[in-house]
Amino acid sequence: MEKKHNYKLVVAYIGTRYSGWQRQKNAVGIQQIIEDLLQKLFQEKITLIGSGRTDAGVHALNQVANFKTFSYREPSTIYSYLNAELPRDISVKSVEEVDLSFNARFSAKGKTYLYRIYTKPDPFLYGRGWFFDKKLDIVKMLEGIEVLKKYKDLSALAKEGNYQKKEVDLREIKLYYDGKILDIEITASHFLRNLVRRIVGHLVAIGRGSLTIEEFESIIQSKNPSKGKFLAPPEGLYLKEVYY
Questions:
Q1: What was the pLDDT predicted at 66?
Q2: What is the CA radius of gyration of the chain?
Q3: For this structure, is 55 an active site residue?
Q4: What percent of the chain has pLDDT over 90?
């Protein structure tokens, strides 16, 4: 009987030129590019399972994916082949054979997303962060973070949809600002669609004075996605880590 193999990939990419992770009919996603190369290597249809979607323009520092096959290749061979053939804005950081029970999506226990804002012009951050040159009240933004931590149902800050699990376990939210780059890191059990970008959009609105803490709390309490009106652009968002 043939033995089945399960390979786990860790992938980094700059999402600027792509329509997100997911394979799509009328656009190019990261998944499609890697799958097509794997199909050439293995000479069979390969289905790559990602830890989750990333939207068009969103980046990843450590996206995790896996695929199963009855054909064996050394992980080092897969690693070398992919990195030789992939475009330079996508790279494979590691390849390993894992237990057949591993599923990049369903085995995940949590994720960390990083959102980067830069407040002074820098061409090297263009397309890799949200340029926002208006004054931000960091103390108020921290107050907004404390409000967020009180709630699990954050559906008002997500894209409308049918979610199996609306309640999100927000494990940690960190904010770092060095006078030029403002990083917001959010770790949670899972994320609803657009949740990080909407959280950041609302925190920035609080920081610039166009949304009060009370209004922010009222939006969250409504549990109504149409009430969440601030969405940060995709270019500042990075999938930083997936936990298993």
A1: 98
A2: 19
A3: yes
A4: 86
